[in-house]
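Justification of computing resources. Each target in the renewal requires a structure prediction run like the one illustrated here; the chain below, 177 residues long, is used simply to show the kind of job we budget for.
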Amino acid sequence: MIGSIPNPKKSFQIDKSVDDINSALENLHLYSKTYRLNKANPLLKLYTFEATETLSLGVFIDATFAKVSDSITEVTIEVRRKIGSFDKSWEVSKANNHITNISDLLSTSLTNDPTEKKAEFEAKEALYQSREIERKQKNADEKANHPLTYYSKRVFGYLIVGLIFYGIMRFILMIVR
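Resulting structure tokens:
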């Protein structure tokens, strides 16, 4: 791409062992909903996180680390686009924000005990699954006991969506003319 800017990258050293960094990166997703672990390769010491952004498909964040000495580890964080490359200055600013956020989350993950966060994460996941089961059961009960109400809600919803879509298309056609 013409005028593309290289992927933002930052390297820094942490006074922790390689094993500590490895476990901290594995548990990083527990501390943020924004960053999801996409790929992990502990053998190559490469972790790839993904984040979605408004008006774009999002970014991949590669975190790698290497042993400098017994207690010092060098961490490198690189942000790359899912599709295309960085070509605007505000995109690079967002990428630098991702680097800062991942660095902060890494320090949080290093200083906190992951067992509490794992338990909290699993409890939230169990609550979400139980609510999803309750919602499905409620829909099934409504469909079985009150089919007229169930189907009228569906028809009304489709009608509203169709009217909104029709209105948007009319507006676009009016602008084009």
